[in-house]
Write a structure and sequence with these properties.
Layout lengths: L2 E6 L8 H16 L4 E6 L10 H7 L8 H18 L3 E7 L7 H10 L19 E7 L17 H11 L3 E7 L14 H24 L4
Helix pairs in contact: 1-6, 2-3
Bound molecules: flavin mononucleotide (FMN).
The site of flavin mononucleotide (FMN) has 17 residues, from helix 1.
């Protein structure tokens, strides 16, 4: 039975562009996989805590050597890691906050990247190698190739590093740009570009969801 892990991270529950893109992906994925299972985490509504000293040190020690604080910290890491490892496909929706990802998504990433369990540093392929990871993102401004702000985008490129370079996953980032144009008077002239970007992102999301649903199970 195929398994999708769907993570939302916008702090906003209503009118979120990234959440809407994630919903579109999930709807198509479920249509294509009627017996599929979706595990859902809403980091905006229910953030996971930041990684603590106990969590860091526990990740580098055998479980039998953990003290009480490390055991407690590792319970959460174990749960999150198990969710990720059991996913045939990963879907992350994220806004751009201050040129980067929300701190809630960063906290989740810090919790799930565990040495020798999800990520390896000795050159051997990790367990998630080749699995599809789809990032759907919403940026208030414009960060397309050649745009003046391109180099300040620390969302898509960063998540490609985490899931592609770090975990070996097959990553695609799909971003709707200029989402602030309709409600920012100074950006009024950019509204047609914003609408086009959103339409392009929606089309790309549907295509990626179909492709992802066809990926053979492990
Ligand atoms: C706290 C905060 C910080 C933001 N920082 C940026 C930014 O640095 N660059 C940008 O282009 N847009 C920025 N925005 C705009 C969001 O990226 C934009 O509204 C996006 O659509 C939010 O995603 P959502 O609609 O899924 O909530 C920011 C919005 C908020 C609420």
């Amino acid at each position: 039975m195929p398994h999708l892990l769907h993570i939302d991270s916008s702090a906003v529950s209503q009118g979120s562009v990234s959440r809407a893109l994630g919903q579109s992906f999930r709807r198509v994925w479920q249509q294509e996989n009627p017996d599929g299972v979706v595990t859902y985490r809403d980091l905006g509504a229910a953030p996971v805590p930041p990684l603590t000293e106990a969590g860091v040190t526990a990740g580098f020690m055998p479980a039998v050597a953990h003290d009480e604080r490390q055991r407690h910290a590792m319970l959460l890491r174990d749960e999150l890691v198990a969710e990720l490892l059991s996913a045939d496909a990963l879907l992350i929706s994220t806004p751009m906050y201050n040129w980067s990802i929300p701190s809630t998504l960063k906290a989740w990433i810090d919790q799930v990247l565990v040495n020798d369990r999800t990520i390896t540093f000795d050159g051997t392929p990790g367990p998630l190698t080749g699995r599809p990871a789809t990032v759907v993102a919403s940026y208030g401004g414009g960060y397309t190739p050649g745009a003046p702000m391109e180099q300040h985008n620390h969302v898509g490129p960063y998540l490609e590093t985490v899931f592609g370079t770090g975990l070996g996953m097959d990553v695609q980032v799909i971003a709707a740009q200029l989402s602030l144009a309709p409600r920012t008077p100074a950006m009024a002239g950019l509204i047609p570009l914003a609408e086009q970007s959103l339409a392009d992102a929606q089309a790309a999301v549907l295509e990626r969801a179909r492709q992802t649903a066809l990926v053979p199970l492990r």
